[in-house]
Specification:
Phosphorylase Kinase, domain 1; 54% helix; Aminoglycoside 3'-phosphotransferase, Chain: A, domain 2; single chain; 6-stranded antiparallel sheet; 3-stranded antiparallel sheet; 11 strands; alpha+beta; 332 residues
Length: 332
């Protein structure tokens, strides 16, 4: 039984376990009216302490629904079992993950992100790490653009090309032009100034604000897993959340406009944030992901779903351009 497997670990916490079941991110524990998540402890002690500081700060600032780490009876964040495996216990919730195909749910999640960002704008939390993706934006965009070109050159050099590869060749020019324009724009953007300001204020980001980490519960929205965040640009949280949501909703203008409006009502977007959001959304990230997956896996056999994904991205391209033009006045 699972309870017996974790008896030693759980005995070192002041909770009375009623039931324990396996879930996607670990093991869900029901203890009366409270819920906890037991999971493998990943990252350093410093990283776990950072997560604790962030959740403590949010709770103290009036945002209680977070997965606060629980210290054991020895006041340690990590508990080892007899085999030396490291475990972390966190506050948890029962609820439904954010439904990215439900407009009202997306709007609530966008408003929730704005609320969190306002709290995390000035934190002065000691030891906060940098959110590396924000500090490496230009380098990442350069790397992805080089990889797009490498895939194109590889396919052009093949004597025999399958349906998937022909589709890449036929679509490449338009997507690569987008990538180059976005890269040129990010190189001109005053990124260092914004990052310096964020460091000075101690502005934190969630780092992984995706539908998996947003739970709709009877107590309101719970926001989980702050372990990938740090000092950075909060607009990147909105970008990652919006990009995934817009891809799932085929870049419907009404959905994207309302998401931004809901966020903006609660956390006003400065002009520089608007500009950076536009640049990030304009980069053909989904197209790059498909080509990168193709290049790094067996090329002799192409799954039907990969062909479907590529065709879906090509079909949605027109809607994406309309969205970028209407909301950000971007044209290609």
């Amino acid at each position: 039984m699972l309870e017996e497997r974790f008896d030693d670990v759980l005995s070192r916490y002041d909770i009375k376990v009623h039931s324990l079941s396996r879930v996607r991110s670990g093991f869900l524990i029901e203890a009366g009216r409270s819920y906890y998540l037991l999971k493998r402890a990943e990252g350093s002690e410093r990283r776990l302490e950072y997560e604790e500081k962030v959740t403590d700060f949010l709770i103290a600032s009036g945002y209680p629904n977070v997965d606060q780490p629980i210290r054991n009876q020895e006041n340690l964040l990590v508990t080892e079992d007899g085999a030396g495996e490291r475990y972390l216990l966190k506050e948890w919730y029962k609820g439904e993950e954010c439904n990215v195909r439900d407009k009202e749910t997306l709007l609530e999640a966008a408003a929730n992100l704005a609320q969190i960002h306002r709290i995390l704008e000035n934190t002065e939390i000691a030891g906060s790490p940098d959110y590396n993706e924000a500090f490496l934006l230009e380098e990442m965009m350069k790397k992805h653009t080089r990889e797009l070109k490498r895939v194109y050159s590889y396919i052009r050099g093949k004597k025999q090309k399958n349906e998937f590869e022909i589709s890449i060749l036929n679509s490449f020019s338009a997507f690569f032009e987008q990538a180059e324009r976005a890269l040129e724009a990010i190189q001109k953007f005053p990124l260092e100034e914004l990052l310096k300001e964020g460091r000075k204020k101690g502005t934190l980001v969630h780092g992984a604000y995706t539908y998996h980490n947003i739970l709709f519960t009877s107590r309101g929205i719970a926001t989980l897993n702050f372990d990938k965040g740090g000092v950075g640009l909060q607009i990147m949280d909105l970008y990652y959340f919006m990009r995934k949501a817009m891809e799932k909703n085929e870049w419907k203008l009404a959905v994207g406009e309302k998401m931004i409006q809901e966020y903006n009502k609660r956390n006003y977007l400065e002009q520089s944030q608007w500009e950076l959001l536009a640049i990030l959304l304009s980069y053909p990230e989904k197209y790059w992901k498909i080509l990168n997956h193709y290049f790094n896996n067996k090329k002799s056999w192409i799954a039907v779903k990969n062909i479907e994904k590529l065709e879906a991205v090509r079909e949605m391209e027109g809607k994406k351009r309309i969205f970028l033009k209407e909301v950000f006045s971007l044209s290609f």
